[in-house]
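Q: I'm writing up a methods section and want to include an example of the input and output format. Could you take the sequence below and give the corresponding predicted structure tokens, formatted cleanly so I can copy it straight into the document?
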Amino acid sequence: MAQSRAARKGEKKGKNVPIGDAPHVPISSVFASVPSVGSGVAIATSNVEGRINLERQQAQEIKYPLWKYVTRDQGKGSKLKGGGNVSWACSYCNNHFKSIYLHVKVHMLGLPGCGIGACINVSVAKRKEMEKEANVGAARVVASSKKTRMGMPLHS
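A: Here is the clean output for your methods example:
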């Protein structure tokens, strides 16, 4: 059987071991290290992943506090890291959207723009409270920015 030039070259350097010369490993030793389904490893892994996702979501809500006023879809395509479009529903008016955090801010605070519209069920007092939280979150984002930590100006 003809070998390719790259295979012969690798064989000369000792990178490729011909199949006939491969060490024999019994199949029973390969499967001995794989846990069984009933061992609870799969359950523990899913609990750890769920806890990590919850921690990420809580950390994100510190910087972006208006996320707590909406319900993010937890489907397969949901993003918990932030950035990009996220499917969400307003907790006050139950309208569903797929957009970025800025649109959550526009909807909750009743700001103009983005074509998403203000939530009609949020009171003026609650909007003021949300605005304070959003300003604190924005300050945290600026404080954690790499450019700010490196001593570089934010705008040139």
